[in-house]
Amino acid sequence: MSKQKLELTWIGKEKRPKLEPRILLEDPEKSYHAKHRVSDKDIFDNRLIFGDNLLALKALEQEFTGKVKCVFIDPPYNTGSAFTHYDDGLEHSIWLGLMRDRLELIHRLLAEDGSLWITIDDNEAHYLKVLCDEVFGRRNFVANVVWQKKYSVSSDAKGIPPSHDHILVFSKSGAMTRNILPRSEKQNDLYKYNDHDGRGPWRTDNLSVKTISQAYLYEITNPKTGISYAPPTGRAWMTSQDRMQVLVDERRVFFGRGGNGAPQLKRYLSEVQQGVVPTTWWTFDETGHNDESRKEQKILIPSDPFATPKPERLLHRVLSIATNPGDLVLDSFAGSGTTGAVAHKMGRRWIMIELGEHCHTHIIPRLQKVINGEDKGGITESVGWQGGGGFRYYHLAPSLIVNDRWGNPVINPEYNATHLAEALCKLEGFTYAPSEVIWWQHGHSSERDFIYVTTQNLSAEQLQALSDEVGSDQSLLVCCAAFHGVTAAQASERWPNLTLKKIPKMVLARCEWGHDDYSLNVANLPMAKPEAADKVPARDPRGNARTLDLFGGTGGEVAQ
Q: Are 325 and 348 in contact (CB under 8 A)?
């Protein structure tokens, strides 16, 4: 029997957008920086991007592929509930398609030792897990962290009310950064004894282990009472008899308060790992809860607190595990801006993307308070944050190609010469880097391959002069409105160091032009086509949705 690939199927899965790689335009009036440095480690070149997050991820692809250490996203949960700042009730299949498109771009942006962290609830968690398996590879699944988001349940709750969210964690290549967590005061408080012998505080620990070794089956004699103790049944002592006697002589074995009991190990705090390995159970007392995050928001934006924020302590835990100071963090569903605020306080570089107007009403004011040192809540005190740094605000450029009044595709008149050169560099795979001394070098793809963009009609004489300047040991892609006096074939033979392309014809088939919104917003959903619904029934005769097919069949039942 042949193996069949595990995969999630849904109506419209085969449809993929041909995204336009837009350029990003900075708005200096919305960018914000501290008036002075607080420390030499201040980071100023963070990015806040306003616009559709799928287009924005595509816009970041050329510059940041393989450079993002951690992606944290808190996407709409698709629960059918209406929130103030999100329309969250998307049809299941469309939600999966929109998430798939974003996950594929995130996968490309992640560094080889990077990781993705997604918060989600039971409504879509298990579908999303299988979807991430497809995009990232099942072998790169790291963990399903359970975050205790509530500390109490309403007495009139029906059914079995949830008190947790999931955080799905995937690595890019199986070699993700995974730091240990600092020890808590509660953990250190276990070391409550101190002999004042210079070794510091200690606690008792087991001297026996499960592994049975004949060499470790002996008796330990209490030096005060003379009573000998064998290891418990089915266990052995943790070390050899000679080594154990050394521990006894050095008073590293504890025989009870009066010295009359069975042997126990003295485990000194100074000798244990100065950190703990993270687990998948995150309690609210360690990582915050929903009420805590709402209170944080109420302090930051008293007049209009964000409806569904995450607590800063939750993001602090994620970034502590997955990143180190200076690493780049990305959140493409920025919401209230918690990821950027926490990353900033922790000395990480960050990029956030948000389409909603709360980018301006919530995120920017919040970040300004962080930078000014006016945000006293969240993790500020625990990390010693005092302000500093800054960010640059960008928005997506409009579509490069638009139709004129006769319906002909033309270069968008909103583009100036600089923006056009940058856009064509991105479309052609060149790095935009205009030379200050060589007028025809707008970008490069290598040390000898360059691009030149102009809206002029170039004559044969101009092309000859350009070819002479470029020289035989370099090449130049010339993007122009037109060229005359020579055919394309003649130009290729006559000037082998030049490649001529006409704009906008050279890019018309590249992508979808004029499509500005791929957002996860129910208001933007297309109307269903009746003929498509007839061909691919969305539900079986009993009314069950046909969405999940793990074994390549015709579609199983999915509880709604």
A: yes
Integer Cα distance of 545 and 555 in angstroms = 8
Query: What DSSP letter does each residue of 43-103 carry, written as one string?
Result: ---EEEEES-HHHHHHHHHHHHTTTEEEEEE------S-B-SS-B----HHHHHHHHHHHH
Strand 475-480 and strand 449-453: pairing? parallel
Per-position DSSP letters for 43-56, written without gaps between them? ---EEEEES-HHHH
Condensed to tens digits (0 to 9), the pLDDT of residues 405-450 reads 999 999 999 999 999 999 999 999 999 999 999 999 999 999 999 9
The torsion region of residue 398 among left (phi > 0), alpha (psi -120 to 50) and beta comes to beta
Question: Distance between CA 371 and CA 367 in Å, rounded?
Answer: 6
For 187, residues 6+ apart whose C-beta sits below 8 A from its C-beta are 276
Helix (H, G, I), strand (E, B) or coil at 274: coil
Q: What is the DSSP string of 368-424?
A: HHHHHT---STTHHHHT-----EEEEEEEPPPSEEE-TTS-EEE-TT--HHHHHHHH
Residue 560's Cβ-count burial label (10 Å; 0-12, 13-18, 19+) is exposed
CA neighbor of 68 nearest in space, from 316, 329, 338: 329
Dihedral, CA atoms, 377, 381, 387, 393, nearest 10 degrees?
Answer: -50
Residue 5 CB neighbours (<10 A): 8
Rounded (5°) CA angle 395-397-403: 150
What backbone phi and psi angles, to 5 degrees, belong to 257? Answer: -60, -40
393 and 31 in contact (C-beta within 8 Å)?
yes
Comparing CA positions, the residue from 273, 507, 510 lying closest to residue 411 is: 507
Task: Identify the structural domains of the chain with CATH numbers, from first to last.
Answer: 24-182+277-396 (3.40.50.150), 185-271 (no CATH), 401-507 (3.40.1350)
Q: Where are the beta strands (DSSP E) in 475-554?
A: 475-480, 482-484, 498-502
Query: For 350-370, how does the pLDDT look when each residue is reduced to its tens digit (9 = 90+)?
Result: 999 999 899 999 999 999 999
Q: Which residues of 380-405 are buried (b: 16+ CB within 10 A; e: fewer)?
A: beeeebebbbbbbbbbbbbbbbbeee
Q: Distance (Å, rounded) from C-alpha 397 to C-alpha 411?
A: 13
Percent of the chain with pLDDT over 90: 71
What the block records as the tokens of 275 is 């950190």
Rounded CA-CA distance 296/231 in Å is 53
Residue with tokens 């490649």: 499
Q: Please list, residue by residue across 243-253, b when 16 or more beta carbons sit within 10 angstroms of its beta carbon and e when fewer do.
A: ebeebeeeebb
Which parts of 122-224 are beta strand (E)?
141-148, 164-171, 202-205, 208-209, 220-221
**One-letter amino acid identity for 415?**
Y
CA-CA distance, 423 to 419, in Å (whole number)?
Answer: 6
